[in-house]
Structure to design on (279 residues):
């Protein structure tokens, strides 16, 4: 018998966690929600960026699963996850995830995410701080930083070269070319359309939450702010802004890294998260 199989309860269903993080679909109050999960240890919930890295079980997920029970849900509006018709703001994403944790029977988790996922994690933590054992936020928007408005991502979404320059410290490097391919297939086009649709609804009028800064004081758990030191989309000034308002936060910069540390500096990204999140 394989002792790596662990039972996870999803409401009335019982699923077996597979070692490779294969996708599962659960019914969350009529909303199909896709997630992947693997590993043992404290529950570690990863909220993906607009890039949609939660669509597949990536090497850094597997590295984290050596220390934690890693759970990677797909946001409503991405991939096969439904319920986007009920999402009007990032706040709605946070309510979606508290219902997901309820369905999973998880009272307290290590919670975090990259970019949009980090913003969602922050919105979750200010509403249900008792559900977050530790919080990590990587390269996330969500706050207003005077004099540092965010670039218009919509203008470069169709320009692959410009997108690599915006997201990567080394836009000509191997990982930049692998993540943002020059040639776009049908599946990539569909994912890009989904991402733009979600972003347009969430941030078109205002790419930040004006109430978030004053609410961050409610987060009393240890918090790691992890930022690429050359993030050109959401610069480190946003990490400094989060640190100013979070009571127990540390800011760690990853050298020679842009907006996507899980790809451009995978080893440093995983090492920082493991060191922070372990008991």
């Amino acid at each position: 018998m394989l002792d790596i199989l662990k039972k996870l309860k999803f409401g009335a269903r019982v699923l077996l966690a597979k070692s490779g993080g294969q996708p599962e679909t659960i019914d969350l109050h009529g909303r199909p929600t896709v997630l992947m999960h693997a590993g043992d240890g404290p529950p570690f919930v990863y909220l993906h960026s607009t890039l949609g890295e939660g669509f597949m079980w990536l090497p850094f997920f597997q590295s984290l699963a050596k220390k934690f029970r890693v759970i990677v849900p797909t946001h409503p509006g991405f991939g096969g996850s439904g319920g986007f018709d009920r999402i009007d703001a990032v706040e709605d994403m946070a309510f979606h995830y508290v219902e997901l944790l309820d369905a999973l029977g998880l009272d307290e988790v290590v919670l975090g995410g990259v970019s949009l996922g980090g913003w969602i994690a922050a919105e979750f933590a200010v509403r249900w701080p008792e559900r977050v054992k530790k919080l990590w936020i990587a390269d996330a928007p969500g706050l207003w930083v005077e004099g540092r408005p965010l670039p218009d991502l919509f203008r470069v979404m169709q320009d692959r070269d410009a997108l690599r320059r915006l997201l990567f410290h080394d836009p000509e490097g191997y990982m930049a070319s692998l993540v943002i391919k020059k040639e776009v297939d049908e599946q990539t086009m569909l994912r890009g359309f989904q991402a733009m649709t979600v972003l347009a609804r969430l941030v078109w009028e205002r790419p930040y939450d004006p109430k978030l800064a004053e609410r961050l004081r409610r987060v009393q758990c240890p918090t790691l702010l992890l930022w690429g030191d050359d993030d050109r989309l959401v610069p480190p000034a946003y990490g400094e802004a989060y640190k100013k308002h979070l009571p127990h936060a540390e800011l760690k910069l990853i050298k020679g890294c842009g907006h996507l540390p899980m790809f451009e500096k995978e080893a440093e990204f995983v090492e920082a998260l493991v060191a922070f999140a372990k008991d």
Remarks:
- The chain has one domain: 6-277.
- The mean pLDDT is 91.
